[in-house]
Amino acid sequence: MEAQEFKSNQYVRFCPGCGDHAILAALTKAMAQIGVPTHETVVISGIGCSSRMPHYLNTYGFNTIHGRGGAIATGVKTSHPELTVWQMSGDGDCLAIGGNHFIHEIRRNVNLNICLFNNRIYGLTKGQYSPTSPKGFVSKSSPFGTVERPFVPAELVMGARGTFFARTLDVDMPTAVDCMVKAHQHKGASVIECLVNCVIFNNGTHSWIADRETRAERSIVLRHGEKMIFGKDNDKGLALDYTNRLIPRLIVVAADDERVLVHDAHEQDPTLHRMLALMGQERYENANAEVQDELPIALGVIRDVEAETYDEAVNKQINEVRSQSHAKTFDELTATLEQW
Fold first, then answer.
1. Structural domain spans, the chain
2. Tens of pLDDT along 217-275?
3. pTM
4. Which overall architecture, per CATH, does domain 3-226+263-312 show?
5. DSSP letters for 76-137
């Protein structure tokens, strides 16, 4: 299939330079690689700039109300498990008003592909701070700087017993496409944190790692089964330091150091996955601090483990109960009850 088949005839109304353009392009490329026909694909969203995605894709779709994309997506997948369901959401839509739905669709392990666009601002409503905005961030709703600590999406996913977490940058098309394809291959709730730039209200929010000159030194693309090596010359690696035996920590070592770790995305224990996902967050959490953190931001698929999915479990239970019941349909059930 071709990416063009998944593009609708609607004019794309993202601002020129918005990172959402790149994620839309990556998604159509990924859908073409996956090869599920458009009429078997559903895109659900809430409210926000990223949530306009159903309009721009030639699939079934539903642009729901603010924060409720997860509830609708769960209903679609549970009632029609044969469909491929994507959920588009932003850091405000997904982590603020929709936060409760988000953690429970992850806890239930509903077989969905969730793209969480994180530009650390409310863009559609013109520039208020969001749940991922760094402490001290000045915005229209925090003119003296927000005093709140931000959410780290990876922590929420791990805390809700998530089975799949990946992270990508809007300026890294190959990694974005790869994460989306692997999210579809995963059976369960797949969360991809898409770091996108809001050129109007929060321009340069991810420039620390997005700039071409510094990206190789400040980010690492993790690949299952491969050594954790990064750097412009691939001369650096990640290892565990056991100096404090109670709390091991990640450190940067030379790429040829025998301690360099091999990435295992399929490890059930989330301890190392969480450590990898939190690398570099100190730099992100405080807008006013000049933090020199040598640990890179982790991109790519960080966690990918197997577990029973909610939609499979629900439908299995329905079929088991139905097989033992005289009434096979709802109409047959009502016929066994007192009639009026």
1. 3-226+263-312, 228-262
2. 999 999 999 999 999 999 999 999 998 778 889 999 999 999 999 999 999 999 999 99
3. 0.94
4. 3-Layer(aba) Sandwich (3.40)
5. HHHH-TTSEEEEEEEHHIIIIITHHHHHHHHHHT-S-EEEEEE-SSBTTTTSB--TTSPBT-
